[in-house]
Amino acid sequence: MATACEFSNELNAFIDEWKTKPGNLIMILHRVQEEQGFISKEAAMEVAGRTGNPLARVYGTMSFYHFFKTVKPGKNRISVCLGTACYLKGGQDLIDECKSMLGLSGEQITTEDGLFSVEPVRCIGCCGLAPVLSVNGDVYGKLTRDQIDGVIAKYKTE
């Protein structure tokens, strides 16, 4: 049997306030992810129970919107832009290099030690600096594959 998910008092109050409002599920899921960094199975079950939504609807919403994460991100979150400009200038190459350097394979996005996660994003908003990636909100532009090592090394020592 799954253990109950513990939410903060603020999140509990938010759920109580929103559970009967239209559009509640997306708003509540955003708050859960904001608090916990991702949406665990236990959190999804708790949201389903508290809002009266079937668990399938909660998971359907989570899987439809790419923003929602079901895997705990690493301490250092590497977001690589795959918007049009970044994609055309090598954004996918940056993802491939990050994953290779960190030993990630297939669909794995978080390193075994939990220190890094790598994920594509649709746009960082720095198209003139393409290709772009950010680490914990620090933006790096006009990158090449051979510069990735230096970016990652900075966060390994912090």
Automatic annotation (TrEMBL):
<dbReference type="InterPro" id="IPR041921">
    <property type="entry name" value="NuoE_N"/>
</dbReference>
<dbReference type="GO" id="GO:0016491">
    <property type="term" value="F:oxidoreductase activity"/>
</dbReference>
<dbReference type="InterPro" id="IPR042128">
    <property type="entry name" value="NuoE_dom"/>
</dbReference>
<feature type="binding site">
    <location>
        <position position="81"/>
    </location>
    <ligand>
        <name>[2Fe-2S] cluster</name>
    </ligand>
</feature>
<comment type="similarity">
    <text>Belongs to the complex I 24 kDa subunit family.</text>
</comment>
<dbReference type="GO" id="GO:0046872">
    <property type="term" value="F:metal ion binding"/>
</dbReference>
<keyword id="KW-0411">Iron-sulfur</keyword>
<protein>
    <submittedName>
        <fullName>NAD(P)H-dependent oxidoreductase subunit E</fullName>
    </submittedName>
</protein>
<keyword id="KW-0001">2Fe-2S</keyword>
<keyword id="KW-0479">Metal-binding</keyword>
<feature type="binding site">
    <location>
        <position position="86"/>
    </location>
    <ligand>
        <name>[2Fe-2S] cluster</name>
    </ligand>
</feature>
<keyword id="KW-0408">Iron</keyword>
<feature type="binding site">
    <location>
        <position position="123"/>
    </location>
    <ligand>
        <name>[2Fe-2S] cluster</name>
    </ligand>
</feature>
<dbReference type="Pfam" id="PF01257">
    <property type="entry name" value="2Fe-2S_thioredx"/>
</dbReference>
<dbReference type="GO" id="GO:0051537">
    <property type="term" value="F:2 iron, 2 sulfur cluster binding"/>
</dbReference>
<dbReference type="InterPro" id="IPR002023">
    <property type="entry name" value="NuoE-like"/>
</dbReference>
<dbReference type="InterPro" id="IPR028431">
    <property type="entry name" value="NADP_DH_HndA-like"/>
</dbReference>
<feature type="binding site">
    <location>
        <position position="127"/>
    </location>
    <ligand>
        <name>[2Fe-2S] cluster</name>
    </ligand>
</feature>
<dbReference type="InterPro" id="IPR036249">
    <property type="entry name" value="Thioredoxin-like_sf"/>
</dbReference>
